[in-house]
Write a structure and sequence with these properties.
The complex is a heterodimer of chains A (about 110) and B (about 120). Chain A has about 110 residues and is mainly β. Chain A has strands at about 5, 10-15, 20-25, 30-35, 45-50, 55-60, 60-65, 70-75, 85-95, 100, 105-110. In chain A, strand 9 (about 85-95) and strand 10 form a beta hairpin. With about 120 residues, chain B is mostly beta strands. Helix content of chain B is about 0%, strand content about 55%. In chain B, strands 2, 4, 5, 6, 9, 10 and 11 form a seven-stranded mixed β-sheet that branches. Chain B is globular. The N and C termini of chain B lie far apart (about 35 Å). The chains are: A mainly beta (about 110), B mainly beta (about 120).
Chain lengths: ~110, ~120
Amino acid sequence: SQELEQSPQSLIVQEGKNLTINCTSSKTLYGLYWYKQKYGEGLIFLMMLQKGGEEKSHEKITAKLDEKKQQSSLHITASQPSHAGIYLCGAQGGSNYKLTFGKGTLLTVNP
Amino acid sequence: ETGVTQTPRHLVMGMTNKKSLKCEQHLGHNAMYWYKQSAKKPLELMFVYNFKEQTENNSVPSRFSPECPNSSHLFLHLHTLQPEDSALYLCASSLLSGRAQDTQYFGPGTRLTVL
């Protein structure tokens, strides 16, 4: 089964700083999803990447997909307290395109 | 109406109780999902329904019983649960399961505590 490893597990940054979260897959990626979750709440869809080299942005959040490395990175520019939460990557794989998730990265942004 | 709603948001039950979780989607999707989220573990897929038909049961114990009366509603019936079943239960929907690039949209979750 497909496994996703996210790094770092947690991150504390000062407001205004840039940061990057990585997601690496054990198998070929057919679609890579980024979600944000506030503690104890549902997942909010951020963006989906499907092609190698693809890059998408949502407000100050940019995600890229490196298909060869089976890896995606999520970059936040000029972080704000509203960016705080858990960022989860999900990937589709296997014959039924089941969505598998990483364990998440907990982001804290200090004002 | 927001995309995917879940009720109740919080539930505390004893091991001998019977309760149900409800999920409703207003996105016109055809697939619905139940996930379990426990502390320090990745999201675990429990069940998948496509057009009301169950297409996946991820080896879930029989004390969890799903029901999908139509493409917009999904229930999870709970009975004789164990304390280790305490978790956040998330419902999601998508256009059609089993396809590539099929984005799932999630509800706010039900925080379940089993005493």
